[in-house]
Specification:
Blueprint lengths: L18 H10 L4 E5 L3 E2 L39 H4 L5 H6 L2 E4 L6 E6 L2 H10 L4 E4 L4 E6 L5 E5 L2 E4 L5 E2 L13 H6 L27 H16 L5 H16 L7 H13 L4 H15 L2
Antiparallel strand pairs: 1-2, 1-3, 3-9, 4-6, 4-8, 5-6, 7-8
Helix pairs in contact: 6-7, 6-8, 7-9
Length: 291
């Protein structure tokens, strides 16, 4: 079992006087962490990254895709670097922090977030036992392994792993087990039966799907970012409609990459949308289009 998965194995983490102290202890064990503000959400981007000015391409290892000193790009800010965590640029955020967040995927973990008693009962009857952590309304079941994050995979159940953050609520109890197929299947939608595609005439001389032309796709993503960034009202609706438009154009041929999706999420979060709202809007748009 890896060091990351062994956080709290066989012991209880000693209480620390500050959120930063807790974060440093977790970081030393390989868990990427970040401060969470009121509402238990990440801090907004720094001025250099505001309104996606830096290009907004978060990665899973470092703080901020542009190596800015601020706490930027939500889950992508999570880091194990103590120099970053204790830097003057992060100090104001730690003073305002209400709790510590972490990036489960970056720690090699998946969190099954059970939001109520009914969800907990379902998990006990369906999923293999693993490390459990009590939450305000339910429990986190933590497995060893990484998968895509998804919200509302069933009533009261969210999956937090890659490109997501979770609140640190302590090491929990029980032995952590490997991510089971039953959890992975929760994120797999039933196939949609579609009409047979119409024949497409390819111009003489051959060619390829225009969506796979990097310039075409990049232009589409850039226009979508601009639409979100320039919105002055109805932000929720604008984000959803923009996601829907992008998926309508590019979602059916496998052209979109994680980096493209991250650009859209970053633009939305710069306008005040939470990562969860972004994921919900993306999922709803995919569902509407049958993707």
């Amino acid at each position: 079992m890896t060091q990351r998965a062994s956080i709290g194995e066989g012991r209880q983490t000693q209480a620390t006087p500050t959120h930063l102290g807790t974060a440093l202890e977790l970081a030393s064990a390989g868990v990427p962490v970040l401060p969470l503000r009121q509402g238990k959400v990440p801090f907004g981007n720094c001025r250099m990254c505001a309104k996606n000015a830096c290009g907004g391409r978060p990665n899973m290892k470092n703080a901020g895709p542009c190596q800015c000193p601020g706490i930027c790009h939500a889950w992508a800010a999570a880091t194990t670097n103590p120099v970053v965590l204790t830097s003057p640029a992060w100090a104001p955020a730690w003073r305002q922090a209400v709790c510590v967040g972490y990036h489960p995927g970056g720690a090699g973990l998946t969190v099954v977030d059970l939001d109520n008693e009914a969800a907990i009962t379902w998990a006990r009857e369906t999923l293999p036992a693993t490390r459990t952590v009590p939450t305000t309304r339910g429990q986190h079941w933590i497995y060893q392994g990484v998968m895509p994050s998804h919200n509302a995979v069933r009533p009261g159940v969210d999956i937090k792993s890659a490109m997501a953050y979770a609140r640190w609520l302590g090491p929990g109890t029980g032995t952590m087990t490997d991510l089971p197929e039953a959890v992975r299947k929760l994120a797999v939608k039933e196939p949609t039966i579609r009409p047979a595609p119409q024949a497409v005439t390819v111009p003489a001389g051959g060619g390829e799907c225009r969506h796979r032309t990097p310039a075409y796709l990049d232009r589409g993503i850039t226009m979508a970012e601009r639409r979100i960034t320039e919105a002055r009202s109805a932000i929720h609706a604008t984000v959803y409609r923009t996601f829907l438009a992008v998926l309508s154009a590019h979602g059916g041929c496998g052209c979109l990459t994680d980096a493209d999706v991250a650009r859209l999420f970053t633009a939305a979060q710069a306008k005040g949308e939470s990562p969860r709202h972004c994921t919900d809007a993306w999922t709803n748009a995919r569902t509407r289009l049958g993707l």
